Amino acid sequence: MEKIILTGDRPTGKLHLGHYVGSLSRRVLLQNSGEFDKIYVMIADAQALTDNADNPEKIRQNIVEVALDYLSVGIDPTKTDIFIQSAVPELAELAFYFMNMVSVSRVQRNPTVKTEIAMRGFEKSIPMGFFCYPVSQASDIASFRATTVPVGEDQAPMIELTREIVQRFNHIYGDTLVEPEILLPENSACLRLPGTDGKAKMSKSLGNCIYLSDTAKEVAKKVKSMYTDPLHLNVSDPGHLEGNCPFIYLDAFSRPEHFGTLTTDYQSLDEMKDHYTRGGLGDGTVKKLLIAILEEELAPIRARRAEYESDIPGVFEILRKGTEIAREAAADTLSDVRKAMRINYFDDVELIAEQAKKYQK
Predict the structure, then answer these.
(1) Residues 263 and 321 in one domain
(2) Same domain? 43 vs 132
(3) DSSP SS3 for 8
(4) Range of 287's domain?
(5) Within a 10 A sphere around the Cβ of 279, how many other Cβ atoms?
(6) Which of 70, 150, 154, 167 could disulfide-link to 75, CB 3.0 to 4.6 Å?
(7) Do 300 and 330 lie in a common domain?
(8) Per-residue pLDDT at 201
(9) Are residues 274 and 301 in the same domain?
(10) Gyration radius of the chain over CA positions
(11) Is residue 156 part of a domain?
């Protein structure tokens, strides 16, 4: 069996550091590992429209923003097919069939769906498209026979639902589709990066994001305003690490070589943490190191983005080619699905012969 990856993002805005540590950087490593036969990265515009139906221009404008972020972090179109979800109609057809494989109550129990509904204020009136997006996501994964889905921990319930739907389909119609496995970030600090305000999740709607396309000045300003330890009023006060954003970010982004180069005062992050918890280390010093580390990480990304921004028609051509490849793969899967479900009427020679014989006089 081929090893295939499918992953993607909703084009509701520029991508941020939460996306980067949660999935983007891992995608690049997986892409370059040589371990996978095919890699698909989807710009999920149809899914984004489930709660932006009254503002399609927002999605339209952000298609290129997301594509630029993908390319700038190192997703290589010669190794990875980047495609637009709505331009592969086979995905919607399979989602329609999948709706018969799962109950309303099962979707309602999905903790990710519950969180998303509350976040968007949909408790009293949930758009049907939004409610069904976990089924659509299952269709996306199954259409490419993805064996591996690299996502953050908040998406684990979605992958579990996908497995359940695929299992039910295969039980009814025979082994046709592949059950995917989730691939979580190895660094526990990357499972869910908090916003700069200390909120549990970095979110565009909360305005607590550091974007991949932010300038060095913008990044520095946001780091300086980060939530730290509210009890650490004086440098001499003992500090607390739990919920302290700069240290959470250092857990996610710092490497051993940063200590001794970007700072000569500490030989390791643990040594810096120990000093902070004892007292005598100010938040400004911690933030200064984080700013330097983030600039080292983001400067090359910024430079690559500038190159792609100079050739937007070329970016659209990358998307067009990737979408053509993706649609061909999805069409192959859907053909097998129709055959398994016995709804491939025009290709079913035996059915045609049987019906012809039935009505012969």
Answers:
(1) no
(2) yes
(3) strand
(4) 216-308
(5) 13
(6) 70
(7) no
(8) 77
(9) yes
(10) 24
(11) yes
